[in-house]
Amino acid sequence: MFGNSIFKQRKSLAAGVALAAGVSAAVFAVNPLAAFGANHPNLVISAADVDAMQGAVEQPGRFRAAFLRTQSAVDRALQAPIVVPVPADAGGGYTHEQHKKNYQLMYNAGVLYQVTEDAKYAERVRDMLLAYADMYPTLPLHPKRRPGAENPGKLFWQSLNEAVWLVYTIQAYDLIRPSLTGAEAQKIEQGALRPVARFLSVDSPKTFNKVHNHGTWLTAGVGMAGYVLDEPEWVEQALLDLDKSGKGGFLRQLSTLFSPDGYYNEGPYYQRYALMPFVTFAKAIENNEPERGIFDYRDGIVMKAIDTTIQLSYNNLFFPINDAIKSKGIDTSELVLGVTIAYGESGNPQLLDIAARQDQILLTGDGLKVAQALDAGEQRPYEFKSFAFRDGKDGDEGALVVLRQQAGGDQALVFKPAAQGMGHGHFDKLTWQFYDRDAEIVTDYGAARFLNVEAKNGGRYLDENETWAKQTVAHNTVVVDESSHFDNNLKVANKNHPELLFFHADDQVKISAAEIDSAYPGVSLKRTLALVNNPRSGNTFAIDVFDVQSAKKHQFDLPLHYNGQLVDTSFNLQGYIDSLKALGSDNGYQHLWLKARGKPESGLAQVTWLNDNGRFYTQSSLVDGETEFLFTELGANDPNFNLRSEKGFIARRENSRAHTFLSVLEPHGEYNPSREFTLNAESQVRALAHRRSGDLELIAIGTKDGATQLLAYNGSPDAADNIENTFEFGGSEFRFTGRAKLFQIKN
User: Fold this and answer.
1) What CA–CA distance (Å, rounded) separates 235 from 301?
2) Which residues are catalytic?
3) Whole-number Å distance between alpha carbons of 225 and 234
4) What is the pLDDT of residues 200-217, one digit of tens each?
């Protein structure tokens, strides 16, 4: 094991061959000092884990059931011939998918070999690796690599996938290494494992040293190979970058890509994807060099990242901000591994609740702990919280805010005053989404991509990801003059971020505010979002106050994208039934059909729709008679049918220097077509008012039962928790302490 005297001697010898710009490629030849057959397995699964698993598969329970399922699947796969095709296809194509199946099979067969000691499993892994050892040295760069890309692969179209192959394959090799002869091991290492590690490191320095999820996968694969192949220099380079300066590498990634709250800069979807190399390599480090204290590094950032990934979900699906595929959720393999390792390290019974939802037991030592604890009924309900997950490595680049309520169903409001999120970020500062009764109500498009569908651009991001999904009008935030935030300039966007002004959560009021003045030159955007409920009345409201300030006159658009069927509006609409036109010509507007428009009179403007969850939703807006509503449907200028047909409406205020968009979203009623009844299909909101008095903001919601629900909050970023606030409303004086309070006034 690493840490013994032999290892220390090898470490000093290996360090002597390091070059200023990185380790010499010669180090990736077969190491004559390697102790073949010793200390295996030594990555995620240890020898002690194997002993425990061998006993557990003989006992009834979840672990045995998972073992039998895996064994049955692998036994079926062993009946097929070995197929190691010459790479030809991009993501989703035959050769791409076959190489993925190969590394997954090799890993599972390796685990079965350790548990059963049946040679047939090791022999299949050996033969597949020998086939790779014959083929890999002959491979050029992948024929479907992207032109000009810095990260091409050989087995796969990009080096990212090659690194995933190594992460799985080095574990498979580690598991079957004791079964190999010295000659077999030498051929596999010299023909496949070492060349892949070299290609991903010294031959791909920009990607290997990059502080990005691609870099994480590369460093994890090479670092784990270093442990298995007894190359401590590789481990050091994986941790600190090729020249061991600390400017890149795994530790730098842990320090930079996550905020102090464990939020990953690119958002939940890529946090989920990046989680696997982080937790896998961390577990390997802990098993080999516990003295590094990797799970304590940066105040336990790995464990925080796992918990935050769970928190950034609703109804088992991740919040789809930035480049996200909306069907990804907590049962994804990366988070299954994360929860399993986290439970093994912490023993937190709330993680068992998530493991039960995932319903996937891993054949590892930590997986055994999860299975046995679930069998014993030790799980406790996982607590989803209202929280402002700070963004940026120092936590000072805005936040992703989640407001949650339990009022007539589980509700969540997601507010995004977060940083750009690098290349996978969207131009949508201060946008929001809303969820209720297991459904997405106010929606975000996510990514324009069909992952691994060859017919759709080889499974890559579609052109519409740039022309629609990333554009500001595709989101629920203000668009100025039909141009996107930062004028679609990624470099500018990455240098700027909103400021989180405050976050507050109590039993009745969850509220947060943020602002940004760099999305448009000379324009200040400030938004306050609140999720409130009154237990006496049973009413729940999502309140939105969006202030726009500018020295010059502009057109201000505030879109709202919703999921459901339009039911009613409180104002007349002019529908376009004979012909449709795109709403605009660029910045996403070219993809929106203009279906109808209407200009409500001053006062209350209401739009009601019905969601598939059987509930009605009404947005009530306070308007001044100059605001027009434009009703849209996605799909214009889409000749390849790449876009989903989704609906929305835009509140437009033209020729204005300043404007406040004020609205309240109200869930109500029930529609049951099976039992043929409809309840409370109409909104209960009859009036809406807004008043400012110094730092205090008052939002009054009059309901049809004659009551008024009054949200009062202190908008000052510096307001203390114990500040005393006093105001007058309706001839009476009111007081409250702290940030916000909801009053119910009976007329």
Assistant:
1) 20
2) 270, 424
3) 8
4) 999 999 999 999 889 999
Nearest to 430 by CA among 264, 261, 269, 559: 559
pTM over the 0.85 mark: yes
What is the predicted pLDDT for the residue at 32? 36
- 362 token code pair: 């891993």
> What is the spatial distance between Cα 194 and Cα 12, in angstroms, rounded to a whole number?
20
**Can you read off the two tokens belonging to residue 596?**
């109808």
Q: Following CA atoms 717, 721, 722, 725 in sequence, which dihedral angle do they give, to the nearest 10 degrees?
A: 50
531, pLDDT greater than 60 = yes
> Could you tell me the CA-to-CA distances from 622 to 468, 619, 665, 701 in Å, in that order?
29, 10, 12, 11
Bin 218: left if φ > 0, else alpha if -120 < ψ < 50, else beta. Answer: alpha
**DSSP for 311-345, written as a single string:** HTEETTEE---SS--TT-BTTSHHHHHHHHHHHHH
Report how far apart, in Å, the C-alpha atoms of 620 and of each of 144, 613, 663 are.
51, 20, 5
735 token code pair: 């007081």
Rounded CA separation 254/215 (Å): 11
Q: How much of the chain is helix, strand and coil, in % rounded to 5? A: 35, 30, 35
Phi, psi of 597, deg, nearest 5:
-150, 155
**What is the total residue count of the chain?**
747
Q: Which two tokens stand for residue 63?
A: 């672990």
CA distance 476 to 489: 20
Query: Following CA atoms 341, 342, 344, 346 in sequence, which dihedral angle do they give, to the nearest 10 degrees?
Result: 160
Q: What angle do CA 630, 558, 517 make, to 5 degrees?
A: 155
Determine the Cα–Cα distance for residues 491 and 420; give it in Å rounded to an integer.
Answer: 10
